[in-house]
Design a protein that fits this description.
single chain; alpha/beta; 5-stranded mixed sheet; 21% strand; elongated
Length: 300
């Protein structure tokens, strides 16, 4: 099937009529009919049953629709890009981030970036790092943010900010003297909030505790750093978190101490090695790095 065939076929599958497809595609009904007939002729089989002006897809049409769906989305994306370039608009910047950075750093960074790129289009999404790598490799994102270096041959990982592993507790847990001292693993007692098995930060904490001969007991285990932070703010227990999440917590409701021995946590800008960043994407990355560093300085 040709690209025009696929476009018309998908429009008919979505609206169910020749007239509806014509309206969606902004072409005449005879043009839709002609393209559909040509597609069926090339395939050597009918794709629809015609009943009282409506088209009902045959099983072969459903299978073909599933196989060509991504190609049709790509085609629509190409058309939007062509229209954008024709209008001399700034290209779309597609950013994917892990949830913790999307909540703690991105809002302020986006606000700052918008001052210089008021007309730019930015698409934001959140994924875990393994999904981010796939999105970058498949060209579904331009840049990404993670607290992990995926160490993938097709991904460039650039550290743009870093802080230290942080222990957070509800306000009033520690005295002023205790707050001035680093926190060691043997202090992980009482009500503790842990991270899911397999979480990279959680694994660092487990290894650090084992190195100090400590086996903390977590009665509450969460999937995201934001949930852990919210629980600490509500007085539910102590958590070991990344510095960006810790810095975004309400200082009136929590206390923070640096983990000892000190362990750096980096914020990485990720991009595909075969796809250099556009000017708009690079400036957004600069704003994110500056915002992340300012966030850590404010929280220290």
């Amino acid at each position: 099937m040709r690209l025009r065939h696929i476009e018309v076929f998908h429009a008919i599958m979505q609206v169910g009529t020749i007239s509806g497809a014509a309206q969606v595609l902004h072409i005449s009904q005879p043009a839709v009919t002609k393209v559909l007939q040509h597609a069926e002729l090339q395939l050597g089989m009918p794709l629809f049953e015609r009943v009282r002006g409506k088209l009902y897809p045959k099983p072969e049409a459903h299978r073909l629709f599933a196989e060509t769906e991504k190609l049709n989305r790509d085609l629509q994306g190409i058309r939007r890009l062509a229209a954008s370039l024709k209008g001399r608009a700034v290209e779309t910047v597609r950013l994917v981030s892990t949830p913790t950075i999307a909540i703690s750093v991105l809002p302020q960074a986006m606000t700052a970036w918008r001052g210089d790129f008021p007309q730019a289009r930015c698409e934001l999404a959140t994924h875990h790092t393994s999904e981010i790598v796939n999105a970058l490799r498949l060209g579904e994102a331009d840049l990404a943010l993670s607290l992990q270096d995926p160490r993938h041959p097709g991904i460039v990982a650039e550290p743009i900010a870093h802080g230290m592993l942080t222990v957070m507790a509800p306000a009033g847990t520690w005295s002023e003297e205790e707050c001035a001292r680093p926190f060691t693993a043997d202090g992980l007692t009482g009500e503790l909030i842990g991270l899911n098995d397999g979480d990279p930060l959680g694994e660092i904490v487990v290894a650090a505790c084992e190195a100090q001969g400590v086996q903390p007991v977590y009665r509450t285990v969460v999937q995201t750093y934001q949930i852990a932070r919210s629980l600490v703010e509500a007085g539910a227990g102590i958590a070991v978190l990344d510095p960006f999440t810790a810095a975004s917590a309400d200082p009136a409701r929590v206390q923070c101490r640096q983990w000892s021995p000190a362990m750096p946590v980096h914020l990485y800008l990720l991009s595909a090695s075969h796809s250099p960043l556009s000017h708009g994407a690079r400036e957004l990355a600069n704003c994110i790095g500056a915002t992340a560093r300012a966030c850590l300085e404010k929280g220290s």
